[in-house]
Amino acid sequence: MNEKTEQPSLWGDNELKVEQTWTSEFGNLDLAIARSAFEVSVEYKYRQDRYVNEARKEVARYRVVVDDTDHTLTLRPSTADRNVVVRPIQTVRVPDGAKVRLFIGTPIWVQGFLAGGEKLFDLPSEILSDTWFGKNTREGEVCYANQTQARLSLEKLSQRPERLITPVTIENHGGDTLVIERINLPLPQLSIYETGASPWTQAIELRRSGRHDMGQIVLSARPPAEYPDARLVSEPRRHEDEALVERALGMLFDERRSM
Amino acid sequence: MDSVDMIALLRAAVLLLAGWGLALLAVRNVNRIPDEMVGLHGKSLIRLGVRYGIYIIFGIMAIRQFGFDLTVLLGTAGILTIAIGFASQTSASNLIAGVFLLTERAFSVGDIIKVGETVGEVLSVDLLSVKLRTFDNLYIRIPNENLMKSTVTTMSRFPIRRYDLQVGIAYKEDLRSARDVLLGVARDFHLCLDEPAPLVIMQGFGDSSVNLQFSVWGLRENFLDLRNGIQERVKEAFDREGIEIPFPHRTLYAGSATDPLPIEIVEEKRKE
């Protein structure tokens, strides 16, 4: 029988001795990692998920063969592996000349590595629905869909370790009101910072200068302004070249699309 | 055998050898063409053309070394062509269809296509036929001519697909709440795309039910899971909400001119 241990610190290295089981919860995700002499067994399931009802609450299990000397489990937060299209629960209208900073929360992905660099798991803390973002059904990209409160003040923001916060600053000089129905967040291209509350990504800044122009997009290279001393904990999943970032962000907002 | 014949034979052998070497070299160069430029089939077509073109040219040159007059051969070639043409009508039409298929690029190796009732993965697109592997692992050869004449559906062309579920509900049910239940099923199934949004289309009043079409979008690779999952969930949701999916009903009616069918409750009478 494996000996159960207390939940260790969230991110970073954790000791994983032989015949020991490490368990943790990240949002809806229940994780249990058991170590025996030559293998690590990974077990996980999702609780209270809207996509997983009682009848389908299945536990996923697999085993990884490891070196006898490998006793460290490194946990790292990560962003979603695709862009996430977030829909504000209520549409946000940004009048001409206004500047707004929205805080958008998305579930975090948890990655586990062994000392040898072997990736044990890469799992979302919450299952997200698939969606399509494109001009039509032929051209576009597969994303995840999520809803957001799109909070404007930091005080009202609910910060939890399994929620990743992305600050999006929008400056509208387009000559008319900008209606935000959905935002395509290029999360795989963002770094993650540890703030002591929720993990945060670097900020996205957008300046709209013409009616049909999505304008200049800047991915901030520094920690978010709200947490200037935040520590970088995770590099982006994908390092895209400048042009690709611009293209992805050119589609940041939903223009009326014909399907 | 005299010396002239020996020299001719030597020349012919050298020419054949040179032709073989040149064909080998040419094919190697064709292989270097990037796949994305001409496609896998285009490349195999060029390879065939180049190899046999060189073989024919060098073969003719070798024959000429023995003093054969090829103009006589070419003279008879016209008659021969007609004879061969009649004999190989089908092959020729398949060959031409094959060339058109290759240039049209309606599908390529690895695509899932549907021809008539046959659905399968394309293994190769050759000059005379297309080879498919069906999902029950059968090897099917379809002549190119058939493909040219019939409708071919490429099922793996676009990244997302729509699944249309035909479902009937009883006449007594509230259509609006049935529609809400269906849309709720799509919302709570992560394989259903959020955008393009799911649709409920009224298909009309059927014999025994009000027919609805529930259309949901999903990723191509998840299509089977989506199809199974959505049916399971729709049944569960309808059972939970008490919405009846009726089976065909038949009501016997003898017409207004005649009396209704007499019904007698036998059990009740016996009790009295």
Quick recap:
The complex is a heterodimer of chains A (259) and B (272). Helices cover 3% and strands 45% of the residues of chain A. Chain A has 1 helix and 22 strands.
Mean pLDDT of chain B: 85
Spatial order of the strands forming the largest sheet of chain A: 1-3-4-5-6
Residue windows where pLDDT falls under 50 for at least 5 positions of chain B: none
Rg result of chain A: 20 Å
Range of strand content of chain B: 15-25%
| Helix and strand element order of chain B | HHHHEEEEHEEHEEHH
Unreliable parts of chain A: 4-8, 255-259
If you compute it from the alpha carbons, what radius of gyration of chain B comes out, rounded to the nearest whole angstrom? 34 Å
Describe this structure in words.
- The complex is a heterodimer of chains A (259) and B (272).
- Chain A contains one helix and 22 strands.
- By secondary structure, chain A is mainly beta.
- In chain A, a hairpin with a 2-residue loop joins strand 3 (20-26) and strand 4.
- The radius of gyration of chain A is 20 Å and the shape is elongated.
- Residues 4-8 and 255-259 of chain A have low confidence and may be disordered.
- Chain B contains eight helices and eight strands, in the order ααααββββαββαββαα.
- In chain B, helix 6 crosses helix 7.
- Chain B is elongated and about 115 Å long.
- Chains A and B meet through strand 13 of A and strand 8 of B.
